[in-house]
Amino acid sequence: MSLGLELTSLFGKKNSPMIGLDISTSDIKLVELSRSGEKGFKLERCATEPLPKGAVIDGNIENLEQVTDAINRVLKRSGSGTRNVAIAMPASSVITKKMLMPGSLNEQALEFQVESEASQYIPFAMDEVSIDFCVIGPAANSSEDVDVLLAASKKEKIEDRVAAVESAGLTAKVMDIESFAARAAVARLIEQQANGGQDQIYALFQIGAKVTYISIMLNGEVVYERDQQFGGNQLTQDIVRNYGLSFDEAELKKRQSELPDSYEMELLEPFLESAALEVTRAIQFFFTSTPFTRIDQIFLAGGCAMLPNMVDLVAERTKLSTSVISPFKGMDLASNINEKSLRTDAPSYLIACGLAMRRFDV
Description:
The protein is an alpha/beta fold and 362 residues long. Helices cover 35% and strands 30% of the residues. The chain has helices spanning 64-78, 107-118, 155-167, 178-191, 233-243, 247-255, 263-289, 310-318, 339-345, 350-357; strands at 19-23, 27-36, 40-50, 56-57, 60-61, 84-89, 94-102, 129-139, 142-154, 171-177, 201-207, 212-218, 221-228, 297-301, 322-324, 332-333. Helix 5 crosses helix 6 and helix 5 (233-243) runs antiparallel to helix 7 (263-289).
């Protein structure tokens, strides 16, 4: 079953060569992986291309031509000849719900049952949405039932993303959810921790352009997630106001560290303090709204993760072990990969990397 556009199932198996393409508010990121050994990965290509302001707003494609042009540019920059692509919907555009179903149902009967019950969880007319589902496993409190995860999104939002990649000559094979893709990339890294990260609580903070996504994980399960309206665009807007630049100029100079000497003290340091405060508040809210009383490790990701002193300031304010995450840690690198650039940009490739991993059925 798919999200209604003849895509491979949201949760199904993927085997054909495929690139991961992350279409965010600020840019488009591409990752292509291959196998290295039985279970390892090799990073074949990665590239990023900025989007004009307003091309994507709150996860919605507002200017199809600008997004398609950026996809064409990122393809050219990467040098990839692969035409199959995995893309994702923002979590805010997808309704997910865990459902309890009889374990005795065959695939056809299960599909009918899910569709029959889906309407009670979806606040839209059923002909306006595409749905998908997967069986998670046996239900915890009932040996005869299974847990099923339902995912639903408005058809028009899915169609916009598919149209953007098809206009660039690509074929959309997988439609994922951004938060799911990010967690797939993080799960691989947690497995590299001592004892495979068992019984450790990991908090992932993806600081994007406008929104910070928070996922807290224990033993492969997400025990808490939410988003906060805070992101790197706030710093960019401060640069626009202080130095009389356009938004795109400010974003470029921020990335290339080409701002006046006063920038660090007047703008960067206050922004970093705000970011650390947002992380601290989110953790306090997690403690007060759940039974959990500890976090063992904070992972920072997204474009802001590599800002100078970000990781140190978060660690200082939260009193918790904090590190910047690289989704490519432990991977072999193709000869064309610029390792210096990768060290700087890797935290922002988390979603694209998770999408690229869908090729290998992980």
